[in-house]
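name: query_chain
kind: protein
chains: 1
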Amino acid sequence: MKLLDLLSATQRSLGEVVASLPETRVVHEAVATPWERKGTVMREVVERVGSQNVELLDGVKVTDERGWVLVLPDTEDAITHVWAEGQTLDESTRLAAEHADLIRVATR
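structure:
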């Protein structure tokens, strides 16, 4: 009901509001990570991103001028998830690939 109230105040339809939302450019990669290397992988990711904006709440989230990347070990499978969003789909893909490569190097 609140949504209908807000829409009537703006004189816009729900379709118009949805169409005006920015396009998301989130990319996901899953990288095979042996269970015994997951802690090492996360530590190496933190060390390699260095002085960038890093949040350690849910995995390792790195933010810079290109966008953000979240590196998150899976709790059930031997993989690490890499979620990335940049200004364009290509930039999102590049960010995800860079961090996926970091994980692959750390699992060797």
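note: The chain is about 45% helix and 30% strand.
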